[in-house]
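Hello again,

I reread your note about wanting to compare the complex against the isolated chains. To keep things tidy I'm splitting this into two emails, and this first one only covers the full assembly. Below are the input lines as submitted, including protein chains and any nucleic acid or small-molecule components. They are followed by the predicted structure of everything together. The single-chain runs will come separately.
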Amino acid sequence: MKYMLLIYVDEVKGAQVAKEVGVAQMSAPYMAYTEALKKAGVILGGDRLQPTSTATSVKVADGKTKVLNGPYAETKEQLAGYYMIDVPDLDAALSWAARCPGAAHGTIEVRPLWSMQAG
Amino acid sequence: MEHAGRLSPDSITGAEDEARAAAETAARRSYGKLLAYLAAQTRDVAAAEDALAEAFARALADWPKSGVPRQPEAWLLTAARRKAIDARRRRKSAAAGETHLAMIVAELAEAAEERREIPDRRLALMFACAHPAIDAAVRAPLILQCVLGLDAAAIASAFLVAPATMAQRLVRAKTKIREAGIPFRVPEREALAERLDAVLDAIYATFAEGWADPAGADPKRRDLAGEAIWLGRLVAELLPDAPEALGLLALMLHAEARRGARRDEAGRYVPLGEQDIGRWNKALIAEADAVLARAQVLRSIGRFQLEAAVQSAHAARRHLGRSDWPAIVTLYEALLQMTGSPVVAVNRAAAIAEAQSPAAGLAALDAIAADPRIAEYQPYWAARAALLARLGDRERADQAYALAIGLETDPALRDFLERRRAALSAP
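Full-complex prediction:
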């Protein structure tokens, strides 16, 4: 089954840490993690996202397009990146989510992809 | 079944009865096994339930005519699987994809497999139902439905939830199992203990719901305690090396052994210390102690084993003439360290009162008085009232009894507390 691992972290704190230890230091664990996903042959894709300050939201209501400055929702932790993986079941997805560096200081939301092949 | 007034000849009635009884026996014994087996591959519990329901309906229609098959379980599985394949085929024919040939091949492979013993995947089913991704409140109801085949209405009334609400929760949980890809698998060793706790908690919650009806007035709830013990036996049998599974079974058996003694002939509440030992079920106590002894050999203590040991120390009144209070204090101390539960703290204080003195017990209660969780906990106030009464502080005992009575929901227990309260002013 295909799952999205959605990485939610406090981006303000993240930026502070990046300033203190350097971006390279901060992304090292993610590189190792990505490498492990590749070695296991489960990764379908993934990337880091620019901070929510770069976000623009679009909505069409009554035929009119509304463009809003900012993210969809103001939350304490923000979507900062994602991985898409293909593993046998939820337990396998959860164990990969637990290994994601973001899990240590944020939250990883695990969501199955909508799939038409079920049943 | 009602016989009177039936128009059909006796022989047919007899065959129908036999078929119905055979179907009911097969349902009770095999339902969970068949459902687990059918749902394990697809993870589609709802579809497996539908297929199984149709299979049982067909059994009731066919067996009176053609006789009860030699292997009812295998017959039901074949019938259910045919229904499931029909349903799948209907879905598939709309969406192009799998060829008809591939499906026939799969059917043949499945049919070949059927001749062998049906593997028991009930434990895997229970782990799926008690998965951390499933809302904790729906785990026990889900196990009852999947493993025992109880309907949503019966489960709802046992858990005091509106039937429509319960049905909706169960549907949502089954959808989650399918869509989120929750596996039907007994977890690996390192995750087993933690995940088994969730299964055992669900079984214990089932037992507690059944236990809440001590008079046995409500057959649905009384059954629930019996069903929980049945599930406990099943888990203990399938995981014989899991000490906590044995601990839970021992705990439930000890409690069940005293069910009849909890009320006197007039239906009044009888506290544990005043129960008539003659009304305890000796065979169940012996079985409980044997199960607990098997758990202790495995040398990994846990909450359920400690609670079962407390019950065992109470049952020791048969030989000692009184509960083994010093042992009970020690056991509750270990439980308190493990759980930090205010309920355990109250029980520990009550045991201290017996093992040492009422004043020491009251001091232990004072030590937890600031915990906000006990402000509305009836046993805390009842224990407090009883100790204050023994120490001669009638006024404060009266106040504590008033609070305990106000917090109690069981009429029999309320009546007991009222009698104790009235006894305060007796000369």
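For quick reference: The beta strands of chain A are 2-9, 43-48, 56-61, 64-69, 78-86, 107-112.

B.
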